[in-house]
Amino acid sequence: ERRLAKAEQTIMRQETNIKYLQSCVDGAAMPAAQYDPMAALRNRSRSPRPMMPALKPMPANNGPVMSVEEFASQNGLDEKCAESLNNQQPEVQRHVIAQGPVEGRNPSA
């Protein structure tokens, strides 16, 4: 339940970013509530900008560390749930498997 709540919070935070990026792509102006009149001045500042740390590249794995079948059998997933996970892209499979053992009374839920 804690992972689900954390995922929901992350999605809600990203919603604002997605709307902003979509407005930039569409060529629309920023909504009035998010307009920052000082942004133009900050962008013109002669002070050096702080260096952003480089992102670490993700390992180039083509598949999950553990097979979906192995994960499903170790966690007691039903056939339909295992099939659904097996039909996902490798990135999704890796993410689900990386979350660790399934918690709760119904692992297939």
From TrEMBL:
Residues 43-65, 86-109 are annotated as: Disordered. This is Uncharacterized protein. It comes from Alexandrium catenella (Red tide dinoflagellate).
